[in-house]
Amino acid sequence: MTSRTAERIGGGAVILIILALFLLVRAEPETLKPLSLLQINDLRAEAGQTETVTRNGTVTASVSAMDVLEVLGASPEDATSAAVALRDASPTRGQRLRPGTALSAWFEAGEDGRERLAGVSAKLSPKATLVASRSSDGRFKANLLSARTTTALHRVAGRIDTSLADAIIAGGGTRQHADMFAGLFPEDPALAKGGRKGERFDAVIEVVTDERGNFLEAGDLVFAAFNGAKTSGSWYRFTPEDTGLPEFFSRSGVAGDEFLLRNPVRGGEMSSGFGNRMHPITGEMLLHAGIDFRAPVGTPIRAAGSGLVTDMRYGEGYGWFVRIRHERGYETVYAHMSGFAENLTPGRTVMRGEVIGYVGSTGSSTGAHLHYEVLRNGFYVNPETLALPTGRDISGNKAVLAAFEAQRDAIDTFRNEAAGSQLFAATASTARMTNAPAP
Ligand SMILES: [Zn+2]
């Protein structure tokens, strides 16, 4: 589970370089060019003097950062101190690092000549890295390094050849964009399975770059139009100021469909309903406050509705779980996950249908399934029988509608200008654009 690469590098000035890097990253944009985090190793290599060894490992659902550091060679005291420092400096303050987080630890000779942990970095996302290093009192202190980023729009349009996902990925998007796209056209279930050859699609996504224009990550889907055999239409992503929650609206300002998905696991089979039942592990009679969907470990779990991630962590019983607050007094909870979606953090807003994590069997669970709860005004309700409100219509609210129309028109203008789609300037060789008229 841990990959080990031992690299011989000089590292007397590691801490100074980290500090310098931190200052540079925070400096004024135009005066100093910040160093890429990737350059840390090169600088260490040039620093000479004491021998430093770097080793890498990965946090998993069952192996914490502290465990990883011990396996890599840190003393239990150092591993604890460094892990606590990382945890306290992370954006998910106080929570353990999420499964999949890559750790890079470096070791150097201590005063007694024996190897000891000097520092550790945890890559949280393409935009953020936590770095903990030993301070003069021997304890570890951590800082969050954030890359300054720019968000640009990127258009991917054309005809489906093999599948919608292949076409979107070939144009610089992701599988998640294709999933979101297909979810906007539920009248045609074939689209979620790839669509039909020749059907036309048009998508606009956000692309996050660092200040030198290097691609960091793909952002949200902001526009989706489809012209297929069974359905067609256009959807614009927009965040009304009054709710702060992003949703997709039609050209005239109506959000689609019901406001919560009935089943957050596509293809998941309901294995246990809402109501009183005997707890499968303790044998007690308890209210089963949600419904269970059986699905293989790793099956994507979708946000039932647009909302704010208010909690995501490991909970007794729940295992890895996510809690989302929606509009109109609703909340949803997703438990026993094997992992969270990349980039998901507390305080982030998610869209209906967006992948937030993966099915697992963590916490009190007897097999891979999603335990899904819906709360209305703080009370558990049965998601199966719940009468759900339909999507919002903003066409009656003048101020909100005007803001929506401005954004809609900006997206349309961009689409016209990007008809020959030439984005990804920095990585043009890796992104092949499909040139085709809009559907
Ligand atoms: Zn359950």
CATH class of the largest domain: Alpha Beta
Q: How many structural domains are formed by the residues?
A: 3
The unreliable regions are: 1-49, 420-439
Write down how many β-strands occur, each being a DSSP E stretch of 2 or more residues. 24
Roughly how many Å apart are the termini?
Answer: 46 Å
Name the helicity range: 10-25%
Shape assignment: globular
Q: Which small-molecule species are bound to the chains here?
A: zinc ion
Under CATH, the topology of the largest domain can be stated as Nuclear Transport Factor 2, Chain: A
What is the beta-strand fraction? 25-35%
Secondary-structure arrangement, i.e. CATH architecture of the largest domain? Roll
**Sheet with the most strands, sense and barrel status:** 8 strands, antiparallel
Structural class category? alpha+beta
Concise account of the structure shown:
This protein has helices at 14-26, 40-47, 65-72, 76-89, 164-170, 175-183, 189-192, 398-417, and strands at residues 7-10, 51-58, 102-109, 115-125, 128-134, 140-146, 149-159, 200-210, 215-227, 232-238, 247-249, 269-272, 275-278, 285-288, 291-294, 300-302, 307-315, 319-325, 330-337, 339-340, 349-350, 355-358, 369-376, 379-381.
Which labels suit this protein?
alpha+beta, Nuclear Transport Factor 2, Chain: A, eight-stranded antiparallel β-sheet, six-stranded antiparallel β-sheet, globular, disordered N terminus, disordered C terminus, binds zinc ion
